[in-house]
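ok so I'm stuck.
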Amino acid sequence: MTNSLLNVLVTRPMPSGEKLAESITRRLAEKVATTIVYPLFRYQPNQDAEVPTKAGVFIFVSVAAVQCAQQRLPLSDWPMTQVFAIGDATANALAQCGIQCLSPTQQNSEGLLAMPQIDALSNTPIYIVRGEAGRELLFERLTAKNNLVSYIESYAKDWQQIHENDVKNWYIEGINCIVVTSEHMLNHLFKALQYSEYKAYWLTDCQIVVPSKRILNAANSMGFKQVSVANGASDEAICKQLAMIG
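replied:
not stuck anymore, here's the structure
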């Protein structure tokens, strides 16, 4: 990409998408000309999520997992002996609920599993608080050490249809950078872009910003050529990576 200004498409759901867009506009005024928010899905809190009665270790995988669990029942009333968060943003969300937690420097599941506090767990009740479906890595690795692992699905995702005219408008408006913060979001986006009349542009010329090498590899396998990796999915990490593009 040349040193032209960025026109950024943020694909996160609301309200985090709007928050990220505001951060980009505020921090990168000389770098970014336009920031558009196009949420790929909406959160649907699960009011029927089961609250465990047996105390155990809780792992929260996202801000939405925290917020929707808090809506179900104040987290101060959950039977938590120890709490972990994947990522700074998730840790901050827990702090806002009055919950202290530990989080890895490498802000993903692999980073969490590398923590000595997690590695030491065995024969322990562990609850992974997340949305409907997701990666199975944590469950598999923690179960392998004889832990009693359960999911608490505090929300579902209502995926939005990406219309052909929307993709065309992105091209007309000069979108040259798309922020995608999960592999499921990348898959959903790719399904729309691969049938676009501008497919070659999206795959070859448009910058894709992702939060991990795992998602980088997925993007490369789909044919995206201009992919860069932020150090996590926080607003700060995304903004730092955008500042480096050029």
